[in-house]
Structure formats: C-alpha cells, structure tokens
Amino acid sequence: MLHSLYRYTVFRMFYMSESNSNVCIWNESRIRKIIEILFKTHNVDLDEFILKNALDKVHSVPNYFEILTAIILSQNTSDRNAIRAFNNLKTVLKEITYENITIVDESVLKSAIRVAGLANRKSRILKELAVILQKNPHYLKDLERMDVKEARKRLLELPGVGLKTADVFLLMVLKKPTFPIDTHINRVVKRLGITSSSDRYEDVRMKIVNYLNNDIDSLAALHLLLIVHGRRICTARKPRCYHCTLSDLCCRNL
Boundaries of each HhH-GPD domain copy (predicted)? Predict the structure, then answer.
C-alpha cells in the first residue's frame, strides 16, 4: 500500500507539474487565441473609455494636446470620472489649447477637473505642459515621424507623462507598436501566467509587444479587451473564474 501511495505521489508531482508548465508556455498563437476568445466574450463599449470621448471631439486635424490632456486626467481614476472631468473642462474652456490652459485661473481649472481626483497635481501638470508646448507647438506633431523608441523618450520628458500615459498616446493615438499596462491588464496577464508576479512594467510591455510582433491592431485590441475582462470577470477581489472564457488558458495565479 505504501508503495502504491508513493507511486501515486510521484505521478502527481511529475505529470501535474508538467501539465502546469505546458499551460504557461506562451507564444504568439496563444496570445492571439486570447484576443479571439475575448472578442466573442465581451461587447466592448468604447464610450466607456476616456480616449474615445476625446477622439470623438477631434475634427479633421487632431488636437494632440487635448488628447494628451484627456489621458492625464485618467491617471489614478476611473474612465468614468476622467470623462466627466474632460467634459467639464471642455465646457469651461470651449477648446482645450495651450493658450486657454495657460490663461485660465488655476482655481477654475481645479474645480473643473476635481471629479477626476488629484486636482492640485493635475492642474499644475496641465499648466506646466501648456507653457512648454506653447513654446514648442510642434512637439507632439513631430512624434508622428519618429520611431516608437524615440517618440516614447520624447514623451517621457514632459511633466506628468509616465510610462502608461506615453504608451496610451503612442499606441492608441499615433498608432505606434507599444503596449500600455493599467492595473486591470497587469492583474490579468499575471494571473494568466503570461508574465510572472515579479515582472515590472517594462518586462510586461516588451513580452506582449514581442509576442504580437509589433502588430499595432492586435496590440490595441488586446489592450482594450484585457481592460474590459479585468473589469467584468478577472476582478481584483473575488474573480469570477467559473464564468471566465479564458479558463483553459489560465495558469490561475491567484
């Protein structure tokens, strides 16, 4: 009996560990399988995203400063609150330009964007950005002709522009191959086992970009789908694993 128990234990240790390791071997086809499954799972409402609201208000010539403002407002808050703050700001200023941000009273600016949180910090950043870009009005436009590495470096030199903000602007606005990672995406990819729990922002970003071979459309689709999946199914608390259509691909790193 002890011999049988020993054999069973060895069997589980060897074969189950082998099975789990296979689940966590990721490549392009498995990442694309995620996109395929999540497209069928979720009805993505783009109106829930701040960027869609900002881009909807752009006419023939994109106002990159207005779009960057919207992304900054979304920092450390929900898209819902960022959209409200953005619309408030549009109502107050009529048009979000360097000049209008520069001349508006800071108390008025803070009041308009307060719903997005961190109003003191964000109003200061917008003021600083407006001054810098007013002196160099082609700064954001010039990013169009740069490769992603150079454009990213230039964006990160601006006040208030961190890694995620830069990557959102580059991928979703300028259509350059990078991958923005928010809290939802970071949680989902680590639970799936695409990245390890110790991976930092840059590690995660580069793994996804490399898996998808710089395919801009796929990177943008995966970005939106993982956010929605993280909001609806793979939530921070009490993830709905039994309702998850990715369960066959998931390493269940909970």
Answer: 73-232
